[in-house]
């Protein structure tokens, strides 16, 4: 008998009051189908947790940082598949059917293709390159809604508690277990970060950070560079 997919969707949040209701409302059909949604809040002062509580199965409070938050959510999850979803990313309606195929496959983990929400043609080009790069390298970024069998995640020790590149670091370890299960039907992620920093500036920043990470620079120093660039852009 084939295994049935049981999803635990883990959403790390920090000051998402403006959008959390819309984000979680989009997940209600999955909850109605028996899957669980876990919101992990890092003590947001804007009331995010209170807004989330009626629309999820559990709100967990943890230390700040996506890796720490996602590990905290995974620690209380009950599903056989853990799916890590950013609050500004939407799953396609076909996600349950695709994830059922994943569970029936020999793969240990996977990710979705991604599409940016903005209307600019450049965003389509950026998404194409992101998806192509991911297929060639087997590396998943957080915007791509990484999913993994719970027992594999536990055996790997979860995310490393680092402030940046936690998705890339975990992908590298998971690649040793199996190639990723790639879903072409894309998640849609909000393009606001790209619009705030500017598309080309964001591309240069992300590639610069990844290059320095691959050369061995610490995630802590890269996180400082990232925060500095974001602060500078917000003042521009």
From TrEMBL:
Stored InterPro entries: Glyco_trans_2-like, Nucleotide-diphossugar_trans, Trfase_2_rSAM/seldom_assoc
Keyword entries, A-Z: Cell membrane, Glycosyltransferase, Membrane, Transferase
Entry-linked Gene3D superfamilies: Spore Coat Polysaccharide Biosynthesis Protein SpsA, Chain A
Chain ranges of the Glycosyltransferase 2-like domain: 8-127
UniProt entry tagged with the keyword Transport: no
Pfam families per record: Glycos_transf_2
Compartments reported by the entry: Cell membrane
Top-rank lineage group of the source organism: Bacteria
Gene Ontology terms for molecular function: glycosyltransferase activity
GO cellular component: plasma membrane
Protein name stated in the entry: Glycosyl transferase
């Amino acid at each position: 008998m084939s295994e049935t997919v049981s999803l635990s969707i883990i959403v790390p949040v920090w000051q998402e009051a403006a959008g959390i209701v819309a984000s979680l409302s989009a997940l209600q059909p999955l909850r109605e189908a028996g899957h669980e949604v876990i919101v992990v809040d890092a003590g947001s002062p804007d009331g995010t947790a209170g807004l989330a509580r009626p629309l999820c199965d559990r709100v967990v409070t943890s230390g700040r940082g996506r890796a720490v938050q996602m590990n905290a959510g995974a620690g209380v999850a009950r599903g056989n598949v853990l799916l890590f979803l950013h609050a500004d990313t939407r799953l396609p309606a076909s996600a349950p059917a695709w994830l059922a195929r994943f569970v029936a496959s020999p793969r240990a983990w996977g990710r979705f293709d991604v599409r940016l929400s903005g209307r600019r043609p450049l965003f389509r080009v950026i998404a194409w390159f992101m998806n192509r790069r991911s297929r060639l390298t087997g590396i998943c970024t957080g915007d791509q809604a990484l999913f993994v069998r719970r027992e594999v995640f536990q055996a790997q020790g979860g995310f490393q508690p680092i402030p940046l590149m936690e998705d890339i670091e975990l992908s590298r370890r998971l690649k040793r277990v199996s190639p990723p299960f790639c879903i072409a039907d894309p998640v849609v992620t909000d393009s606001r970060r790209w619009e705030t920093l500017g598309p080309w500036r964001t591309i240069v920043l992300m590639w610069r950070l990844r290059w320095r990470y691959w050369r061995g620079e610490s995630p802590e120093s890269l996180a400082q560079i990232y925060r500095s660039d974001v602060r500078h852009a917000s003042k521009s």
